[in-house]
Specification:
single chain, alpha/beta, Arc Repressor Mutant, subunit A, Rossmann fold, 2 domains, 5 strands
Length: 278
């Protein structure tokens, strides 16, 4: 989009029409061939190809693929399935694409993640009186994982849930000695954003696990941890956020090594006594 904003103003009107069609009708455009795009904007197929190259892409397929990657986070679940499971598409191609996307998300997250931000987040969690974890809808699985992991080593984690008790009661008593961790990715869940802001307004420090600095969770968070979740499917990819959580909890344990060892030793005795594991 930055490239489009910079370059498209210098394009001739016929090419600007192509760009405008992609921007304004992305859910439709990412499925169309260059010839079909030409028909929609009443120009030639050659103009569509020249537009892609003028924007710095190798050709129309690369241009369309870039739009697919950019807009997939904003697409409805219906559009995502149409994109992934297109008619006559081989199952092996779907498998390869999903797996490759997961690997790309991990690598992108590894390169963009700030080690200092991770260290700061681990330090904040280790000092907290209580840790409140918020993540609604599909991100609830991530919030439960973080809550469970922190409970093992610190025993001070509280998982905020909808429908179990009034949410305001679950946040009762939260203050400056506490930390709230919010987890959400585009499309951002309104309840998560509002609860996070409410906790921050009561004085808690905030850690956001999200996908970009412009996320609504990042606005007031003390620490922002970025993880990529792009996947051309009706579900989000949580491979990279899971890796970030694993890394964060491991850092917390390393910073509070003596306490963690005592807690885990006591838990191992309890698990053996109750025959928790086979």
């Amino acid at each position: 989009m930055e490239r489009i904003r910079t370059v498209s103003r210098r394009l001739p009107p016929s090419q600007q029409k192509v760009v405008s069609f992609f921007v304004e009708h992305c859910d439709q455009a990412v499925f169309l061939t260059s010839l079909e795009i030409a028909g929609h904007v009443h120009t030639s197929e050659a103009t569509v190809v020249r537009t892609a190259r003028a924007l710095g892409f190798g050709g129309y397929p690369e241009f369309r693929r870039a739009f697919q990657n950019y807009f997939v986070e904003r697409m409805s679940t219906v559009t995502r399935v149409k994109l992934t499971a297109a008619p006559r598409r081989r199952e092996s191609d779907i498998v390869d694409e999903v797996m490759q996307t997961e690997l790309n998300n991990l690598e992108s997250t590894r390169l963009r993640l700030d080690p200092k931000a991770l260290s700061d987040a681990a330090e904040i969690l280790g000092r907290a009186r209580h840790v409140y974890v918020i993540g609604m809808r599909s991100a609830y699985a991530l919030s439960w994982l973080l809550h469970f992991s922190l409970t093992l080593i610190l025993a001070n984690s509280r998982l905020i849930t909808m429908g179990v008790a009034d949410v305001s009661e679950q946040l009762e008593g939260i203050g400056s000695e506490d930390v709230v961790v919010a987890i959400s990715f585009e499309r951002y869940t309104r309840a998560t954003v509002e609860l996070f802001r409410s906790a921050l307004a009561r004085g808690a420090q905030g850690i956001a696990l999200t996908d970009k600095p412009t996320s609504p969770l990042a606005e007031s968070a003390a620490v922002v941890l970025e993880a990529q979740t792009r996947l051309s499917s009706f579900i989000d990819s949580y491979v990279a956020p899971t890796a970030v959580i694993d890394t964060l909890v491991t850092l917390v344990a390393a910073k509070r090594r003596r306490k963690v060892l005592r807690v885990l030793a006591a838990r191992e005795d309890e698990w053996r006594r109750h025959r928790t594991y086979v």
